[in-house]
Amino acid sequence: xxxxxxxxxxxxxSFALVTGAGAEVIKVAHADNxxxxxxxxxxxxxxxxxxxxxxxxxxxxxxxxxxxxxRELVEALQTGAVHVTSVSNGVMSAFAPQFMLLDIxxxxxxxGAARGMIDGSQTLxxxxxxxxxxxxxxxxxxxxxQVSSSAKGISSAEDVKGMKLRTMEAPLHVEAxxxxxxxxxxxxxxQVYSSLQTGIIDGQxxxxxxxxxxxxxxxxxxxxxxxxxxxxxxxxASNDWWSSLPEADAAIIAAAMAEATTYERSxxxxxxxxxxxxxxxxxxxxxxxxxAEIAALKALAQPPVIARIRATLGDEPVDAWLKAIGQ
Length: 327
Ligand code: PAF
What we know:
This protein is of the alpha/beta class. It has one domain (about 1-325): 3-Layer(aba) Sandwich (D-Maltodextrin-Binding Protein, domain 2). Helices cover about 45% and strands about 20% of the residues. Strands 1, 2, 3, 4, 5, 6, 7, 8 and 9 form a 9-stranded mixed beta sheet that branches. Strand 1 (about 25-30), helix 2 and strand 2 form a beta-alpha-beta unit. Helix 2 runs antiparallel to helix 11, helix 7 crosses helix 12 and helix 12 packs antiparallel against helix 13 (about 315-325). The chain is globular, with a radius of gyration of 20 Å. The relative contact order is 0.17. The chain binds pantoate. Pantoate binds next to loops.
């Protein structure tokens, strides 16, 4: 954490902050912009919590990494400086390795299969988070990740070779792209636009609506539909804060979170639905990477990633997971 973040942490270290109006503050922070479904869903969560608690709680939502990047935000939950965040699965797996299972590339043929697995695995994924000062509230998502690039799209597995591709700071993503022949470059999101603009990187990977919302189409003329990761975004709370809540208040917050989760997913579906046409309208080439080429990329990417997860979690959970996802 830098000095700014430390100051915020010091100011917010009590988990029972109270507003001038006497409401208890729930501090929510995330790294996405205000157009992102995550932010919209947190705003809905804020309304619901306020309404259903009769104004006893006030949810303050800090977007765009104002209180830190995703890794720092999970750390801020552990110190109690932030109460709730939602981060990318890749970042979460650095704290709780069971989340690595969701980062096996090319696991899901469609969003329904991914969502079914995500929902069916919450108990496994949230197990033992309390031991590291965290509590799992929900799993949001941002849809399938696709590749955007400056020079050409991915029409064949060969096209990935040598591509300087920005990945999240998620070791399994780096491993997967390296195995596919790319030159993966992990960096925080804040640096991506300028790095694409200056040519430090050739491409990045994210759901298509991130390319429109973040105006990456100004510097990326091709997107390729690779569906390589179905992007889960766990919503996590500070366990000190969560376990301090009276049962009735925890129930109000959990119910608001359940409703916000349904809302978040509907927003993602709507964004995914319109992003392709928007990009085409903006002159971006949309390449449907052929199924045989996806299969070739999968054959390269999965073995080292699965080996790494086995080395961390052991064979049994990995075998059970692979069986459940039909791999
Ligand atoms: O690529 C990332 O870092 C994430 O997907 C993003 C764009 C910040 C959304 O969570």
